[in-house]
Specification:
Elements: H1 4-8, E1 11-15, E2 20-24, E3 73-76, E4 90-93, E5 97-100, E6 104-110, H2 124-142, E7 149-156, E8 168-174, H3 179-195, H4 199-210, E9 214-217, E10 221-224, E11 235-239, H5 251-272, E12 278-283, E13 298-302, E14 305-308, E15 311-312, H6 318-321, E16 325-326, H7 330-339
Parallel strand pairs: 2-16
Antiparallel strand pairs: 1-2, 3-6, 4-5, 6-8, 7-8, 7-12, 9-10, 10-11, 11-13, 12-13, 14-15
Helix pairs in contact: 2-5
Length: about 350
């Protein structure tokens, strides 16, 4: 039975992964909209761009030349936000001006030699190759004694700060657990200590029973719009099995992960017939040498588009000063995404 209180009236929803609240205002969808509109971004790119520093054979900003790679290509970021050789230091003035050094490694993973392909347009076999690289990098970086967390993420689209359209992601590995995974770790630990099951294990069971926010699923993974979603078409991919990282994937789970990545990114593109922008990332257990039975593998997708390819949601005003807020409900956006075809719109033209 539909809860009209959640569809018609303002309310707050708890993000069980972070312990933070989100304000939901579904009644505001009835108001007239006169917000910003911008031109749809041109999505026609060549297979090879001689000016692109990520394409095979081209010279990068630091003067190094890329190999003539045929599949994926990984290298250390030429302008890394973290440095492996950074000196160790602390700074503290009366507990008011506090800082500490942070060592780390930043890597770039080119998904494909093709300049014009995104995950949505790659075949599943090639996406599996990307997952293999993620596994190798997670194992290599996470095995370093000083690395406590490995964050794999992708910024797709100019609107999300991506300065190069060549399909790629980044991996930042550092000596402390960053804020967002740390919030989740605390929530996971608290729930597991009380129930001896993972938080997402029970949450997923509830979502599968209710079927209100499901988008797509296969034998190993479920994609859904979380109950506490902030971004209009935000999604969460959760493993059916409570595993802590991608090194624990079975062969079929790896294939199924490629399938769900292909499907959810294709549905995004099909929504507004555009290469859909987003920030996305894998949340895995820390690599701090401890056993993390409480952790449950998942992946976040945070896309900014709201009503069309030219209208995006901004985090301003109340959101910057108080808490996140959304108008359209997660139930509404999940229904939209669920009904979209899994075949890319370009393949039907």
């Amino acid at each position: 039975m539909k809860n009209t209180n959640l569809t018609d009236y303002p309310h707050r929803r708890l993000n069980i992964l972070t312990g933070e609240w989100v304000l939901c205002s579904p009644h505001r969808t009835k108001r007239p909209w006169q917000g910003e509109q911008s031109e749809t971004q041109e999505d026609k790119r060549p297979q090879y761009d001689p000016q692109c520093y990520l394409c095979p054979g081209n010279v990068r900003a630091n003067g190094e030349r890329n190999p003539d790679y045929k599949s994926t290509f990984v290298f250390t970021n030429d302008f890394s936000a973290l440095l492996e050789e950074a000196p160790k230091f602390d700074h503290n003035e009366k507990n008011l001006l506090v800082a500490e050094s942070q060592k780390g490694i930043c890597r770039v993973v080119n998904f494909s030699p093709r300049h014009d392909l995104t995950l949505a347009e790659m075949n599943k076999e090639d996406i599996e190759k990307v997952i293999s690289v993620w596994q190798n990098e997670f194992e290599f970086l996470g095995s370093k004694p000083f690395i406590k967390y490995v964050q794999i993420f992708e910024n797709k689209g100019k609107i999300m700060g991506n300065s190069n359209p060549h399909p790629h992601c980044q991996i930042w590995a550092q000596e402390d657990i960053p804020n967002e995974p740390l919030k989740e770790l605390k929530q996971f630990r608290k729930y597991f200590k009380k129930h001896e099951r993972t938080l997402l294990q029970d949450y997923l069971k509830l979502e599968l029973r209710k079927k209100e926010r499901l988008v797509y699923s296969n034998d190993s993974f479920v994609a859904l719009v979380p109950f506490w979603a902030v971004w209009p078409y935000e999604t969460l991919i959760v493993s059916r099995r409570p595993i802590s990282n991608i090194l624990q994937f079975k062969k079929k789970e790896k294939r199924d992960f490629a399938d769900i990545l292909k499907t959810i990114t294709t549905k995004y593109d099909n929504l507004f017939k555009v290469s859909f922008p987003y920030s996305a990332g894998l949340h895995q257990a820390p690599t701090d040498g401890r056993e993390h039975k409480e952790w449950h593998f998942h992946m976040h997708f945070y896309p900014p588009l709201l009503r069309s390819a030219t209208i995006k949601k901004f985090m301003v005003g109340y959101e910057m000063l108080a808490e996140p807020q959304r108008d359209i409900t997660p139930e509404y956006s999940s229904e939209i995404l669920r009904k979209l075809p899994a075949k890319h719109y370009k393949d039907t033209q």
